[in-house]
Design goal:
Two copies of one chain form a homodimer.
Chain A (H helix, E strand, L loop, with lengths): L3 E9 L3 H11 L3 E8 L4 E7 L6 E7 L11 E8 L2 H10 L4 E8 L2 E7 L5 E7 L3
Parallel strand pairs in A: 1-4, 5-8
Antiparallel strand pairs in A: 1-5, 2-3, 3-4, 6-7, 7-8
Chain lengths: 128, 128
């Protein structure tokens, strides 16, 4: 069993400004940060409620095309100590791998799929 | 602005036992509880990682029929003090209401939609 911590929920959005406005102005969330993602030609925003630790990530992709049914849930993210070791363990247990490990900024990321095909991000410190 | 706390992410699953097994045995989450939901003829399970507070709810519906693209994200839940007051405030701000308030067990629930149509649950204490 992989030692992991559920860290945030990533949803896909049609319009990043509009969605940030909704979650901050209507539901009182705090904007933790907003980042351009070169690799996907997109932009993300991280939010949380003032009283909570649970994070919500809004994912916008310039190249998405039409926003389709199924784009609402982007991924669920779990923190692990060692992304490569965790992926290797999950793979050996028959879990489907969606994306092999790669460095992104100061993080290392990989993706597997849950039984319904939902992308599960494994996130850990960058491997040097 | 509504005072609310992001409480959990609810995903839709094809097979509750199979998904509980995945999230507990592969990703080390703890099963907090499993509940039959009479109103939907379904069953849900709540999980969290040992080191975290973030909850994941697995939603299974007997009457779903075929599991379709778009069923992966069920809803995002926010805790509020007073569901009726929060709904009224959001409605007056032009937020689309998906389901009017109702009591369920010891809770009171209502649903609105985010800008992409994602169902947002407002949850608070039961109104007597």
């Amino acid at each position: 069993m992989v030692k992991a911590k559920f860290d945030y929920t990533g949803i896909g959005v049609r319009d990043l400004d509009h969605s940030i406005k909704f979650y901050t102005e209507k539901l009182g969330m705090q904007l933790l940060g907003r980042y351009k993602i070169k690799e996907t030609n997109g932009e993300i925003a991280d939010l949380k409620s003032p009283d909570g630790d649970q994070k919500l990530e809004l994912n916008w992709y310039a190249n998405r095309g039409e926003y389709k049914n199924g784009d609402e849930l982007d991924h669920l993210a779990f923190e692990v100590q060692d992304v490569d070791a965790a992926l290797s363990e999950l793979r050996s247990q028959g879990v489907e791998v969606a994306m092999e490990p790669f460095n992104a900024g100061n993080s290392r990321l990989a993706f597997v799929k849950d039984p319904d095909g939902i992308w599960i991000e494994l996130e850990g410190p960058k491997k040097t």
